[in-house]
Amino acid sequence: MKKPGSVQARPATIDTPTPKDHQITPRDRRFGRDPEHQPGRWWLNDDPVATAFYNALSLTFPRGEAFFIESVKSFRDVTPEKLQKEIRAFVKQEIIHTREHVALNRRVEESGYDTSRIEKRITESLELTKGRPAIANLAATMILEHFTAIMAQQFIANPQHFANADKETADLWRWHALEEIEHKGVAYDTWLYATKDWSRWQRWKVKALMMLIITRNFWTNRYNDTLDLLAQDGISGFRTKMRLIRFLLFKPGVARKIIVPWIKFFLPGFHPWNEDDRHLIDLAESEFEAALPDGAQAI
């Protein structure tokens, strides 16, 4: 019997809610490269808590997105042609995202923050994935891509998240968000193809368990990393923890506002494109249209 998740031949096409006419377009944007650009230490509304949270999140992206790329690429060559093209576009987008977050993280360090402890923890965490079955890493990627997509919806739909932020840095996050929405179904469709011989119960059981584990780790690590950066500003203690919880759950409350789409992940028949939110891509698109290189083609 074939081992679950292993694929020896290209699987049959499986219908998914991914829009048939949907296009994934890598946009080669660069942010904050002007030497005169000075975003300030607390670039988000002069708020140390909000700034620390997004800085901590940004620090996860270079290594995290490299992991996403390798996880999905492991299954690319045995998927149908359309999904192969989508995976290639996904990879291009993630490579550019990585480059821009490397630049943002460099600016965080230049602002005087020691990011070594956070980066060490991220590296050690990803080291644990080496030698793990490819299907397990794909499942983790599919789940984390859902996290980034539902947060991205908030970043574009709710201007409060980046109100009074440094424009270049806020534009980076909104550009990243629109592309996360754009490719939100790629890892999930790859997962569906890779597990096409699994029962629905087996697929749900694995993804539900991993979602619970990853959710706990994601928020625990973001919470601790944010407190690490705040402590370097001399901001610590019980009141600081309460400020961070208020930021996450109440105002602007990004963690609270993604609870419903997080719950939907567990429903039978879930798929990221059950909600067609391409209007959010269109909302942000006009700002970045000029970023397309000459001759670039959407696929």
UniProtKB/TrEMBL annotation:
Species the sequence originates in: Parasphingorhabdus litoris
Gene Ontology molecular function, alphabetical: hydrolase activity
InterPro entries: UCP07580 (IPR016516)
UniProt-annotated stretches for the region Disordered: 1-42
Hydrolase listed as a keyword: yes
Biased composition (Basic and acidic residues): 18-39
A Pfam family annotated for this UniProt entry: Metal_hydrol
Protein name: Metal-dependent hydrolase
Keyword terms of this UniProt record: Hydrolase
